[in-house]
Amino acid sequence: MKQVQAVTLCWVLLLVSRLGARDGFPEEASFYYGTFPPGFSWGVGSSAYQTEGAWDQDGKGPSIWDAFTHSGKGKVLGDETADTACDGYYKVQEDIALLREMNVSHYRFSLSWPRLLPTGIRAEQVNKKGIRFYSDLIDALLKSNITPIVTLYHWDLPQLLQVKYGGWQNVSMTSYFSDYADLCFEAFGDRVKHWITFSDPRAMVEKGYETGRHAPGLKLHGTGMYKAAHHIIKAHAQAWHSYRKKWRNKQQGLVGISLNCDWGEPVDINNPKDVEAAERYLQFCLGWFANPIYAGDYPEVMKDHIGRKSEEQGLDMSRLPEFSLQEKSYIKGTSDFLGLGHFTTRYITERNYPSRQGPSYQNDRDLIELIDPNWPDLGSNWLYSVPWGFRRLLNFAQTQYGDPPIYVTENGASQKEHCTQLCDEWRIQYLKGYINEMLKAIKDGANIKGYTSWSLLDKFEWEKGYTDRYGFYYVEFNVRNKPRYPKASVQYYKKIITANGFPNPREVESWHLEALETCSINNQLLAAEPLLSHMHMVSEIVVPTVCTLCTLIAALLLMLLLRSQS
Ligand SMILES: *[C@@H]1O[C@H](CO)[C@@H](O)[C@H](O)[C@H]1NC(C)=O
Ligand SMILES: *[C@@H]1O[C@H](CO)[C@@H](O)[C@H](O)[C@H]1NC(C)=O
User: Fold this and answer.
1) 563 located within any domain
2) Ligand 2 center from residue 502 Cα (angstroms)
3) Contact 188/140 with Cβ under 8 angstroms?
4) Could you tell me if 163 and 223 are in contact, meaning their C-beta atoms sit under 8 angstroms apart?
5) pLDDT value, residue 131
6) 371-285-49 Cα angle (round to 5)
7) Number of separate domains in the chain
């Protein structure tokens, strides 16, 4: 550990000295005033497990995340679960009112597979109440003129598929997933025209099957995640083909995937080794999933590196599975749009000292990730605000994958821990900077159709519990009915949406001031919340208790009175 820190420190110092020698980026420093193309879609996002709660209600089966969070201490910060989360299952109307307040054109949310299919398998059991719940949600959104963008899989695999068959380690997940997808197309496809098969599968397999920090908590170093990803890519392709064959003619919708990736910038752009390392960073992150889907196979650099290391490790086959020729052509071209999630940037340099660990994803990439100590840091310990990286990633995706239609499916910033400030100045800066870089990418030629800010509410943040707050709306989790309070960024984002961009300096400056004015009033309301909930407690617990006691005492007195008289 010490050694790693020393090495990292060395690199940071080196980084600072090398960066100092660089020219500035003039186009990045300047703000671009202008508007987005007409019809550009603005939205916010969320996911089922992080917000719904009602984990065992109305026929829902358990997911791997229910099992993971219930399985004992130390899995999640504060041993939290999402058993109730934001109570989103019971607050559909209230949350749609929040979406209307923001004036969004779309809402991205995910369906809980085990809420629809309690055992995971369509042939076994379909939960009608689950269908009803999402059907009503979709209707309510459409009634408010909000387009639903629906994710099929945001990490909550039905637990029975994990226990019985090994989850994504088993290739049979592809057909269970495809059957599930087909049910969703059938039940909701008359109204849903934008489908996302998988959300951020890279993080899902890395944390679920390599480091074990996410459900299902497996540590199959250097093998499990490649296998899980292999099956996920096949499952995605199968669902896409099923839509094309059975539903596309009738429903006229789009099916894509959502891939998250940070930008990787070479530490020294004049050093070919650093440039290669940064390229490798992107291919191991975005290319891993996007290359099979857009070009029919894993990136060459992944095949080379993992193949060579597997050989060195004495294996007779690469740890990276291979697609057959037939599979390659089946998978190629199976995305109607590219969903991109993006949060931050890293400087990348080659790792030129040998690693002593065994097989692992980290080891396979041969690179070191660094941060610039001058970047503003946000709530999550990995998240720094580096807006210019966003434009570069969007341009990279445009040129790598043949100018696909792009939907930004996630981008946002979390609040520093335990901070109950609704005046989230720093989120406003993040939003403004990142959305502006996206506008520049559109001017560069990227075909970006929409933007989803992450996320509508503060919510269960996986292994971080409730400590990282990504929401536009603050959720008071300690109060029984989980009230929501708007942060200042709500007003600011609404202004961007309504103006469809950044019209001119004077106006944009006034948004900032207005947003910060409203939040101080809301801060006072939030501060009064403990008092209010205390008053609830008085009326709900203390009053009945006192009444019961009074009745008992009265009865006792009456008895004594009767006795003394007789
Ligand atoms: C994979 O799933 C199938 C059921 O679809 C099961 O029969 C098989 O035993 C599973 N394989 C493993 C290794 O668990
Ligand atoms: C919502 O945004 C649209 C532009 O997308 C704008 O025309 C409309 O006036 C806005 N509505 C409100 C209530 O701000």
Assistant:
1) no
2) 14
3) no
4) no
5) 98
6) 95
7) 1
Question: Cβ(499) to ligand 2 under 6 A?
Answer: no
* Any atom of ligand 1 within 6 Å of the Cβ of 170: yes
Domain membership of residue 421 (yes or no) is: yes
17 inside domain: yes
Q: Whose C-alpha lies nearest to ligand 1, atom 12? A: 165
Residue to substitute in 157, 170, 180 for testing ligand 1 pocket (most ligand atoms within 8 angstroms of CB): 170
**52 counts as catalytic:** no
Ligand 2: residue whose CA is nearest its atom 2: 498
The answer to whether 99 and 473 have CB atoms below 8 angstroms apart is no
Task: Give the pLDDT of residue 560.
Answer: 83
Pair of tokens at residue 340: 């991109």
Alpha-carbon 8 to chain mean position: 28
The closest residue, in CA terms, to atom 14 on ligand 1 is 165
Which residues constitute the domain of residue 197? 2-527
* pTM more than 0.85: yes
558 within some domain: no
State the DSSP code for 457: B
For residue 428, give the CATH number of its domain: 3.20.20.80
Encode pLDDT of 341-399 as tens digits: 999 999 999 998 877 778 999 999 999 999 999 999 887 889 999 999 999 999 999 99
Mean pLDDT, residues 391-411 taken together: 98
Tokens 């501060």 correspond to: 527
Query: Which of 10-24, 53-67, 238-252, 305-319 shows the lowest per-residue confidence on average (mean pLDDT)?
Result: 10-24
pLDDT at 12 (0 to 100): 52
- Please pick, among 410, 437, 461, 476, the residue that the annotation labels catalytic: 410
